[in-house]
Amino acid sequence: MRRLMALTLASVFALSMSACGSTEEAETEPTESPAAETTETNTDPVLNVYSSRHYDVDKELYDKFTEETGIKLNVVEGKAPELIERLTREKAAPEADIFLTVGAESIWLLNEEGILGDYSSPTVEKNIPEQYRGAGWMGIASRARVIAYVKDQVDPSTITSYDDLTKPEWAGQVLARSSESGYNQALLASFVSIDGAEKATEWAQGVTDNFGREPKGNDRDQAKAAVAGEGKLAIMNSYYWALMDKSSDPEEKKVAEQIGLIFPENTHLNLSYAGIINGGEHSENAIKFMEFLSSDEAQTMIAEENGEFPLNPETAVPEPQKSWIGFKAQDLNYEELGKHIPDATKIFGEVGWK
Fold this sequence. Notes:
Elements: H1 2-18, E1 31-32, E2 46-51, H2 56-69, E3 72-77, H3 80-89, E4 98-102, H4 106-112, H5 122-127, E5 133-134, E6 137-150, E7 174-175, H6 182-195, H7 197-209, H8 219-227, E8 233-237, H9 238-245, H10 250-258, E9 259-262, E10 268-276, H11 283-294, H12 296-306, E11 309-310, H13 321-324, H14 341-351
């Protein structure tokens, strides 16, 4: 029965996540890096990586890790659902040693399928707080799911919670991406986990009733639409604002200048994480890579270049993230979050959040 439930949920994940074509981390088809094409020798220390993170800083981290350890990374990139399907298909004889992805909602499914393997590392335990690591996985960085507002049209002191998005005064003023977005799936699943399905449904209905337009586009598009006058409030991830603010595109910088961010009570944090693969041939190297990713050096690079929040408490938080810290995050069990994705999918359908 448990196996049947896991397979059913795997289908739900595939349907919801494969539709996230606008999720900016998941726009590329599975590809193998040049390193994966080289012939390995028995004496070459290697690490086989599957990754749905597609950032320039990640490539810099790969190079830095190889430079410091001599371990060569064979990287296969792709969309998260495709890589999860591949990991499931290969689990009897794993080809990957470690999986890098965005969205902690997939941790539960990977554990149910027996894909993640337990590991022990005093270094990771020292560098990453307990709530951001667990059986087979370690958080790399986080980004907050926040409420963006048009500065000259909204008094931010009047909005303190996600519930405020449902108030009648914001009718026709709320912007959001599709319910098929993994970010929105995880946000609503977190409400189901913490407050129950009934309250989560009320929230989703209230937001849907206040939409300024039919959901579409990615998070940056919500900010752009708000500045263009299609709404005054938008749901987006904090790191997108940071990337827009330092963008080489003057139009994106102009949008960021006109948008402020509200970190609601019990702000939802979306995690990027690394999962060690059960039965991976190079598990010791995988642990070394996790330790490297948890280090101050790597955490600083991620925070400075990608606008994410470092999870290592010893890492200095750069701007603009430094100006945002002080908010209270949800008390969320990330290993259990994925159980509530089917409920979130059902609720979105019931309330008409397209």
